Amino acid sequence: MISALRGVSFSVRRGEIVGIHGPSGSGKTTLLKILAGLERPDRGEVIVDGYDLNQLDENGLAMLRNTIVGLIPQDYGLIEELTVYENIELPLLLARVPKEERHSRVIELIEYIGLKGREKARPKQLSGGEKQRVAIARALSNTPSVLLADEPTANLDQENAIKVLELFKQVNRDFGTTIIIVSHDPKVLDYVDRSFVIRNGVLREVSPQEALGSS
Length: 215
What we know:
The chain is α/β, with parallel strands linked by helices.
C-alpha cells in the first residue's frame, strides 16, 4: 500500500493565510481533499471549524462544503453551460437561500471580484484570471469560515496570478476568512502568514526561504 500522507499533524489559526508547498505528487492535493472532506484519512482526526469530519456522513460533509468550507479547485470547477451569475448563485440555490437574498449576494460578489458587467458571460468567454475570480466568488457565496485553494495560480500568467493572490489577501482582510493555499508557485510566499512544505507525504512548517527551495 502506498501512503500519500504519513503522520501529518498541523493546525491553522482562525484568520490565517497558510501556504502548503511542495513538488508535484508530494501529497498536497490529497491533504486538501482530506480537509474538504472529499477523502477520509485511514486514521487520526480532522477538525475544521469545530467539526470532526470523521463523525460526518456524506450529507454532512456536503453541507460542510457548501457552508463552512469554500473549495477552489485547480481547474476552476465552473459549469460551462452556466453564466458567471449562475455559477456564483449555484451554492446559494443548494442552500435554499431566498431569491432576493441570492440576487443581492451574487451582485455583491460580482462587484467585489471586479467583474461587473460580465454577469451573463459564460466560462468560455472569460480569461483564466477571470475564471479564477469567479471560482473564488462562488466559494465565498455562503460566507465560509475557511477557503481551500488548490494551485490557484497554476494556469495564470504573472499579472493575473498576482491579482488573484491580492484578492485572497483582500478576502482575508475584509472577512477574516482562514485561507489555505496549496501551491508550488513561489509568489504565494509573499501572501501567506506561515508556510509548510510537504515532501513524500511528510508535512513540516518551514521558513519562507526553505519553502522557496521546495517550490
